[in-house]
Amino acid sequence: MSKKVRVRFAPSPTGGLHLGGVRTVLYNYLFARRHGGDFILRIEDTDQGRYVPGAEEYIIDSLSWCGLEPDEGPHKGGAYGPYRQSERKALGLYEKYARQLVEQGHAYYAFDTPEELEAMREKYKTAENPSPQYNHTLRKKMRNSLQLDPSETSRLLAEGTPYVIRIRLEPDQEVTFTDLIRGEVTFSTTGVDDKVLLKADGMPTYHLAVVVDDHLMEISHAFRGEEWLPSAPVHILLWRYLFGEDRMPQWAHLPLILKPDGNGKLSKRDGDRLGFPVFAMNWTDPKTNEPATGFRETGFLPQAFVNLLALLGWNDGSGQEIFTIEELIAKFSMDRVHKGGAKFDFEKAKWFNHEWIKHLPPSDYSSRVAELFAAAGIQIPAADLVRPAGTEDPLPIIPLIPDTLTDISGTPLIDLAALDAGFNPPTPPPNRFEKILALVKDRCVLLPEFVPQAAFFFQPPATIDLDAVKPKWTDAKALFFAEYLRQLELAGQLDAHALEVQFKEMAAAAAIKPGELLMPLRIMLVGGKFGPHVFDIAVVLGKDETIRRIRHTLALLKG
């Protein structure tokens, strides 16, 4: 690409960040990283009436949780700031271009009051046209600079009469552009209304602001949802009138994320109805106090969330489903993005999370799980969170050589910085808490499931499932466990393999099948018929606690 890649995500700070918005971020981010470009966050707060306090911070926090950090933005700065449209408006960046369009004859002043606009909609409403638009026909019947005498327009402007600036669209014009996903797309201007470009308060609408900002920020590619396709003719004409279409970004309109049944765009209401999140993180609307659950709080790992979103509308053609962010960057291309919408499947989303829980070392999510234990009232001993002595993370090695080796002509031979970035230092040994998470992680689909799956390691089970033991409990089994207790008391440091061998040998000597004894042992240790390998449980509990729990259950069985 001859022009440096610069892409942007430009949300309105009006609420929670929908997973469709995060996917737009992801595709922008992957494309920028794939081509060595920049990813920009720009806050489009042109609609001050819908502005929600805290929404901008929520968006930034959501992107941070996903690991999709912008190169430039309102929280980071950059050479193309400011990155909030309200601040750019204060610099007069938009009004200048709106007036330029008026001077060129491509826009006009409209002095209609809200009451006059409402009256127009009522007067010209028909069964065939229930929502009349301010277009090339109806503008002839309204109060604007195209219909007024120039002197009257000048008088109204001089008196400070409120006005908006509208684009002037003529019918029967064809507007064509190339979409990176959909190929050549052609629209007719017939049926497109004269959109407001500059509001009465001087704030630009999205239509003007997105074009001006993309130009001034030197955006090379504009990726957005397909719901913006109907607005494309207005935006392309604004590029043509203001800056030239040859300077326009390359467009890509991303497919919708659909409801599970494929019938329409996925919404928060669908998530509430079907019991799954649609926002990246928990969000409570400060105006309505209406809460919305997020993927993070539901128990998703950010790696899984990003992975599943990448495949909602894209694949690399190989059938691979689990991708690291590095693999996604290396393989992502817009020509593999689908045209059709992608149905959201929450069960498949959970499958991704389960795979990532199994794939990652528990140290990657242990702090989050520890918070869940604390929220459940289960205290993790501080000693369980400490790594074994002498296993601190190694100090980084600072190479005393240049970042890049070159030949005599200066041509790079080896990029040592890239090699260093790909080097993964050995993972330090886990602490006790991480060992426990490793034992149960195959059974956990969402992070909160670690609590019921591992709580018994930190506190004795509140109940013992005696009903699962009593029907087949015999005096011979009671004698076996009495002898097993004696052997445990004589044992030194516990080892899972040695415990299993000893247990089976004792079962054979007592002429009892090991399977008839293993299930009662499990229930004695954890309270029910669940959990990892029973002898691994005993090792983690330790000899004293294992003995105490067996004795406790034997006493209950006697009673």
Low-confidence stretches: 393-423
Give the helix tally.
Answer: 22
Main pleated-sheet profile:
3 strands, antiparallel
End-to-end span in angstroms? Answer: 80 Å
Radius of gyration: 32 Å
Structural class: mainly alpha
Helix content: 40-55%
Mean pLDDT: 92
* Form type: elongated
Order of neighbouring strands in the sheet with most strands: 3-4-7
Number of strands: 15
Percentage beta strand:
5-15%
Give an overview of the whole structure.
This protein has 559 residues and is mostly helical. 40% of the residues lie in helices and 10% in strands. It is built from 22 helices and 15 strands. The longest helix has 16 residues.
Which secondary structure elements does this structure contain, and how are they paired or packed?
Blueprint: E1 6-9, H1 19-34, E2 38-41, H2 55-66, H3 85-90, H4 93-104, E3 107-110, H5 114-123, H6 150-158, E4 164-167, E5 174-179, E6 183-188, E7 196-198, H7 206-216, E8 221-225, H8 232-242, E9 250-254, E10 257-258, H9 268-274, E11 283-284, E12 291-292, H10 295-298, H11 302-310, H12 325-331, E13 342-343, H13 346-359, H14 366-375, E14 404-406, E15 412-415, H15 416-421, H16 432-440, H17 450-454, H18 475-490, H19 496-509, H20 514-526, H21 534-541, H22 543-558
Parallel strand pairs: 1-2, 8-9, 10-13
Antiparallel strand pairs: 3-4, 4-7, 5-6, 11-12, 14-15
Helix pairs in contact: 1-12, 7-8, 11-13, 18-22, 19-21
